[in-house]
């Protein structure tokens, strides 16, 4: 009888069959269609994949042909020889299928597989111990099989519902009706799995893996029982109970971590040789002997293919001193993880055992170099430096999974905190695809909010988990002590490290588990369960991954095809990579892991220590970027040249000097501070630096600065890839940060190509407007509107005005609730009045009047209130009278005759004149106030009686910078470079002091 099980065969299983039936040269062109399908796998990568598989294009073309009846007939003849088919047929003949079930859910569909598994493992009887129950093994398998089947079951339910009516009064009754119709009788079960033959194969293979693994588990326990007596003081009779499976991912054909209790002691069974754990214990003993420190060393029994470890319980601290000791040791582990090249120590891999942090999964010490191909650009170089720092360990706070495709949760920041330092219970920042309306005929997958449970990594004192951040100083102290020991005993430590860690197997994490898990999830699509080559087409995307050596991709795909998370190993004294099934990928790495660790230790000097300590403090959120007084020069030209010189000294180019960035401090959108390669941001990133460079080169021609200008242009002025996601519509942050610099470039150079590029950049603007769009000047559409209007006035092109008006629709949200220019009413007033001047539309004038009234409601007789929590600033561009005064001046200059506006303006002017700031930057410092006064002095609204005071104040602001230096956020006398808070902002102020044709940075005019 013909079935569909032929469709459960892989391409390379079909090829030998078709090779006997067809001449490859006469075969129609299937390959062109295959390659034309959407995929990340380019033809170049595809050709490489064929080389790795050992087949040619003609043969592959044969293997992907559409199946005829003759093909199916011949393939099924072959399929009947496969183990999965033969065992699968046994599974479908299970007599217990007819057993009645009271509660029916999706597990009803996979019960034949569970019955078979139960029957087979019951045959495996331990000789030297007893197992209290096999239920945990059944439960674990059932959960896994339902996960694999769920998308297909949901799809099939709705397909059946589409073609026939379900009986039942309620959604639950109709669900039971569907399940019984599809899965109650043996004939109906067979029919279902014939429709989804790949699912049938996959479920059968997983059952066979689990049976084999159960057998290995029992054999392993029996092999080492004699060692339990002296290693863990366990004596006969032996009983295994309190079993739990799935504490880790599935690797190597369904193998996972098993927790169990032998008599009265808890243990962990792992299907891998963890000799590295004993080597790490040896290194801890070495440190204890040399330094007098104490560490907790996990006791274990390890064999060639498995390991049994004591289960480390979370244990409460007795007093505050023990909590301090815990975090002191935690800092020591941070240092050790960096210096011994360890990674993947996230929150589940560390247990707070009283005063001891205990790493319970140490197979990822002594790691080799990253397998990723390094791009020849400065961003990649700085990124590698950052992510091979102390951050690589996973012990420290760091955002994970920031670029998910799933919808974000309302009000949540992007990124998970999964580190061993702070992995507490937390809401996922993105929604996860999950089953909803379960056990009803309305069951479906939808994106819903989830919480991630915490682990056992946070110490407990007096019954409560402590706040880790309160012990930051202990972490720093512990880190520094280990670093100091390595610095003062470099050669001795290197020799000890090489002796202890040579020639031992470690796990290599060459790609994050989440990336693999995502691919497995995509592979559960019903189409992939009907035809095996659809799964192969999906996983073909992996060939595009940016490995230096792509020979690891085929083993990855092999593991994924059997529903495993791929896993790799490396001998620390070898350059080879070893796959889950023991295949050796020769010379995968350019050096051995021991050689890498040796280099890290030998190159670890005071400078590197300071850099790693900086990374640690930034991660903990305790690094304070303090203002330092920086001498830039005694006059405007000296200051300008010093700013230019600083940029040239700190520029990071690629080899050809075509791309450039700077390593600098940078505030993330959530206001956390980082030290990283500057991106395109206008506020304090490359776009702002470019603006200074553009005008500096115009007035002070310089070959090296011209080179920097050209490199910045090549770096910045590239069209970003189109994305379906809504964008942050701001000209200070995000992809439109380059818009204002483009405007100024076009003004100066009048190149048509720049205007064309601008129009192309804005092409999809309307599609990118999202529901959460901000209205303000700095992070929202108000500043954006102003720049679009600038383009409109310069080019007379209506498209810029139309786009400005489209953005103006976002100003109706009423989200503004602060005073001031950058985030408050004043910025919206400025943009709205600009729109009114350009269009004459009353709605924009009405908004101006409305927001003037709202802002002035918060004038307390002395100043406009700072409505931010715990803030009280004045005389700043961002939140004070500087910015408010600019909005009022703009109204007055353009015909808005109003006594209150005049009064507001004069109050702002007098406040700026009476106040001096310590900070020198544009956003909230003296150069910002200088630029405000410069605007006022060049207007017709400077009262005669204040003219002299304005000039004196402008002079004194500059003179103070010349004589005393500028106060700029800095580290080790290296000032921040950015436009709004750094030294390029000082430079723009000096350019404006020299030449009134320099644009107004404060209002983007």
UniProtKB/TrEMBL annotation:
It comes from the Bacteria. Residues 196-570 form the Lantibiotic biosynthesis protein dehydration domain. It holds the Pfam family DUF4135. SMART domains: LANC_like (SM01260). Residues 748-775 form a coiled coil. One of its GO terms (biological process) is peptide modification. Keywords: Coiled coil, Metal-binding, Zinc. The keyword Metal-binding applies. Zn(2+) binds at residues 878, 923-924. The keyword Transferase does not apply. GO terms for molecular function: metal ion binding. InterPro entries: LANC-like, Lant_dehyd, Lanti_2_LanM. Signal peptide: none annotated. This is Type 2 lantibiotic biosynthesis protein LanM. It comes from Pilibacter termitis.
């Amino acid at each position: 009888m013909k079935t569909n099980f032929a469709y459960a065969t892989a391409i390379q299983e079909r090829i030998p069959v078709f090779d006997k039936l067809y001449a490859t040269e006469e075969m129609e062109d299937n390959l062109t269609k295959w390659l034309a399908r959407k995929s990340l796998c380019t033809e170049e990568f595809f050709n490489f994949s064929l080389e790795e598989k050992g087949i040619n294009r003609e043969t592959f073309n044969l293997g992907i042909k559409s199946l005829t009846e003759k093909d199916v007939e011949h393939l099924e003849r072959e399929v009947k020889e496969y183990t999965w088919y033969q065992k699968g047929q046994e599974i479908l003949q299970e007599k217990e299928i007819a057993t009645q079930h009271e509660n029916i859910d999706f597990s009803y569909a996979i019960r034949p597989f569970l019955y078979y598994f139960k029957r087979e493992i019951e045959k495996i009887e331990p000789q030297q111990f007893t197992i209290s129950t096999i239920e945990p093994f059944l439960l674990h398998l059932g959960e896994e099989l339902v996960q694999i089947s769920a998308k297909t079951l949901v799809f099939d339910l709705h397909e059946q519902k589409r073609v026939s009516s379900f009986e039942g009064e309620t959604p639950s009754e109709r669900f039971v009706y569907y399940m019984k119709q599809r899965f109650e009788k043996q004939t109906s079960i067979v029919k279902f799995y014939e429709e989804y033959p790949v699912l049938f194969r996959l479920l059968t293979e997983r059952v066979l893996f689990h049976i084999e693994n159960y057998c290995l588990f029992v054999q392993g326990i029996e092999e080492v029982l004699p060692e339990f007596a002296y290693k863990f003081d366990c004596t006969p009779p032996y009983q295994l109970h309190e079993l739990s499976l799935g504490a880790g991912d599935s690797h190597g054909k369904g193998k996972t971590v098993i927790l169990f209790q032998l008599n009265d002691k808890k243990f962990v069974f792992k299907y891998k040789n963890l000799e590295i754990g004993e080597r790490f214990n040896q290194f801890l003993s070495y440190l204890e002997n040399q330094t007098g420190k104490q560490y907790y060393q996990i006791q274990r029994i390890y064999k060639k293919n498995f390991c049994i470890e004591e289960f480390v319980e979370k244990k409460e601290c007795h007093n505050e001193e023990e909590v301090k000791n815990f975090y002191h040791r935690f800092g020591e582990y941070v240092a050790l993880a960096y210096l011994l090249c360890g990674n993947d120590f996230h929150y589940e891999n560390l247990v707070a055992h009283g005063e001891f942090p205990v790493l319970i999964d140490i197979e990822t010490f002594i790691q080799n170099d990253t397998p990723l191909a390094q791009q020849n650009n400065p961003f990649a170089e700085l990124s590698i430096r950052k992510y091979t720092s102390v951050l690589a360990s996973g012990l420290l706070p760091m955002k994970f999974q920031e670029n998910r495709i799933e919808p974000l949760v309302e009000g949540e920041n992007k990124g998970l905190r999964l580190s061993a330092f702070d992995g507490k219970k937390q809401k996922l920042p993105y929604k996860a695809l999950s089953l909803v309306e379960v056990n009803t005929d309305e069951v479906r997958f939808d994106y819903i909010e989830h919480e991630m449970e915490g682990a056992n990594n946070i110490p407990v004192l007096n019954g409560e988990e402590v706040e880790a951040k309160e012990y930051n100083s202990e972490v720093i102290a512990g880190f520094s002590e280990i670093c100091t020991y390595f610095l003062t005993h470099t050669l001795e430590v290197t020799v000890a490290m090489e002796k202890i860690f040579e020639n031992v197997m470690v796990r290599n994490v060459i790609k994050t588990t989440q990336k693999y898990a995502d691919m497995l999830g995509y592979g559960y699509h019903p189409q992939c369960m009907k035809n095996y080559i659809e799964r192969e087409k999906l996983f073909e995307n992996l060939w595009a991954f940016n490995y230096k050596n792509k020979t690891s991709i085929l083993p990855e795909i092999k593991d994924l095809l059997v529903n495993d998370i791929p896993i790799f190993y490396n001998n620390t004294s070898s350059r080879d990579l070893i796959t889950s099934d023991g295949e050796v990928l020769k010379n995968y790495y350019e050096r051995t892991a021991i050689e890498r660790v040796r280099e890290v230790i030998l190159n670890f000097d005071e400078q590197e220590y300071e850099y790693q300590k900086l990374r640690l403090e930034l991660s903990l959120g305790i690094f304070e970027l303090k203002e330092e007084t920086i001498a830039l020069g005694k006059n405007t030209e000296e200051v300008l040249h010093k700013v230019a010189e600083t940029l040239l000294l700190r520029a990071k180019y690629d080899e050809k000097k075509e791309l450039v960035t700077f390593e600098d401090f940078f505030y993330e959108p959530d206001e956390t501070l980082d030290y990283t390669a500057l991106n395109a941001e206008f506020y304090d990133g490359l776009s702002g630096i470019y603006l200074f460079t553009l005008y500096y080169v115009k007035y002070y021609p310089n070959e090296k600065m011209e080179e920097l200008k050209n490199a910045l242009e090549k770096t910045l002025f590239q069209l970003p890839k189109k994305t379906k996601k809504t964008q942050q519509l701001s000209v200070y942050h995000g992809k439109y940060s380059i818009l204002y610099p483009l405007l100024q470039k076009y003004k100066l150079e009048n190149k048509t190509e720049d205007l064309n590029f601008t129009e192309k950049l804005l092409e999809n603007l309307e599609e990118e407007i999202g529901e959460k769009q901000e209205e303000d000047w700095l992070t929202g559409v108000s500043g954006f509107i102003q720049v679009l209007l600038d383009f409109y006035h310069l080019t007379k092109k209506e498209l810029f005005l139309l786009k400005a008006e489209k953005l103006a629709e976002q100003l109706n949200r009423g989200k503004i609730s602060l005073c001031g220019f950058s985030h408050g009413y004043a910025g919206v007033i400025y943009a709205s009045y600009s729109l009114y001047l350009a269009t004459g539309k009353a709605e924009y004038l009405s908004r101006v009047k409305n927001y003037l009234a709202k802002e002035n409601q918060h004038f307390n007789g002395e100043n406009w209130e700072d409505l931010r929590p715990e803030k009280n600033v004045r005389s700043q561009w961002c939140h004070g009278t500087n910015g408010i005064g600019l909005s009022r001046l703009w109204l007055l200059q353009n015909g808005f005759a109003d006594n209150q506006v005049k009064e507001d303006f004069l109050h702002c002017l007098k406040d700026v004149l009476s106040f001096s700031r310590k900070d020198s930057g544009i956003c909230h410092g003296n150069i910002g106030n200088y630029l405000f006064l410069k605007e006022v002095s060049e207007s017709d609204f400077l009262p005669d009686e204040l003219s002299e005071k304005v000039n004196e104040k402008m002079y004194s602001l500059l003179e103070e910078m010349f004589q005393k230096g500028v106060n700029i956020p800095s580290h080790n006398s290296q000032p921040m470079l950015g436009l709004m808070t750094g030294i390029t902002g000082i430079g723009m102020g000096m350019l404006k002091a020299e030449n009134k044709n320099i644009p107004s940075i404060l209002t983007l005019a």
